[in-house]
Design a protein that fits this description.
Blueprint (H helix, E strand, L loop, with lengths): L4 E9 L3 E4 L6 H7 L15 E4 L6 H16 L8 E7 L9 H8 L6 E4 L6 H14 L6 E7 L18 E9 L4 E9 L7 E4 L10 E4 L3 H25 L6 E5 L4 H11 L3 E3 L2 H4 L6 H9 L7 E8 L3 E8 L1
Parallel strand pairs: 4-5, 4-6, 11-12, 11-13
Antiparallel strand pairs: 1-7, 2-3, 6-7, 8-14, 9-10, 13-14
Helix pairs in contact: 2-3, 5-6
Amino acid sequence: MTKSIGFLGFGSALPDHVRCNDDPVFDALRNSASADAAGEKALFYGNKERRCLAQNESLAGLVANAGHAALNDAQMATHSIDRLYGYLSVSDYIAPNALYDVHRIMGLPVDTLVVPVQSEFSNFLLSATLATEAILAGNAKTALVAVGAGWTRNMDYSQGHAIGIGDGAGAAVIGESERFVVVDWASDTFSNEYGAMAMHHWPHKGLAYPTYGIDPSSGVQAFLSTGMDGPPRLIKRLLDKNGVAPRDVTLISHQATQKLLDHWNEQIQPAAYLDTFESLGNMVIASIPVTLAQRHSEIRTPWLVMVGLGIGAHQMALLIRV
């Protein structure tokens, strides 16, 4: 009989500093919003607050705190972890990823395999899938999945998407479990959208650090087409394959803007839709695990679906039996 693999514990960690919508950092965006109301700036709205790392605050330390919280929730010790999956964005170095620093800070065993998974913004979902497959194959017993986002340091604050960006970290322990069992997953890849959204140096901006950007033509079109309608199609395919009705599902998703959340809710019509967007904003790769850690006790349905999408471009959904 195939063993059941699922989530054993959840954890999250957030910076202390709260940035509200009236923060001066958004002055350039506010002053130019009316002139570009039909463009990118009109697509991103809905959050009132977000958390921001301080200048000397470590993203790796934040992720390590989330990892320890997940271990505590699972009532497990660091020596029990065979593999560490996840990603930190933006890392201190181009390579290696700061997930290795999380291993150091947490004091994980030297024989714990570290697996950085660069798939913004589905890092958590893909890492959980890879961990599940490794455990099912008998190559590991227990894995920690930990991701963290520190994008407030890498934004062009004259761009519309910048209004939602916040920092945070989320983690989960995965192993043999009879609750929150990973049942199935589905994904789509839209490689024709490669480069439509990306983090890199934009020479015309004159910024000394890489920033996230959405191409005003191909990026906005990707948002309005595959971004809006891809996740509902993907979830329908996953639910139909497993004979699950939307009325029996709680949904947790990527959280870029209230526009997407409202549209996905209308198209999918889950029994419940959990998010942390209003108070924590768009934590890019960390929104799903932070929401899962903070709100999983509210789930009353027999099924949970988590769906993410990201630059590349790709989309991924996990079906969980609660």
